[in-house]
Amino acid sequence: xxxxxxxxxxxxxxxxxxxxxxxxxxxxxxxxxxxxxxxxxxxxxxxxxxxxxxxxxxxxxxxxxxxxxxxxxxxxxxxxxxx
Length: 83
Fold this sequence. Notes:
By secondary structure, the chain is α+β, with helices and mostly antiparallel strands. It has three helices and three strands. The chain is 35% helix and 23% strand. The longest helix is centred in the middle third of the chain and has 11 residues, at 31-41.
């Protein structure tokens, strides 16, 4: 399976392997998604609520991982798992 970043229709493969490999990569590369809150804090329309970040500590299945990644889906940007 592959972890893919989709950014305004552009697809970028970040890592491939088994589920545990994808989770390990995400845990070691939090900057690949935590930038969202940095941008929100600097946005003049910021309402005070930051985007909830994925909790990767209890991911056991592909559905668990995709559910956590859905937290950071901005519509124009997202992380998805392709089997």
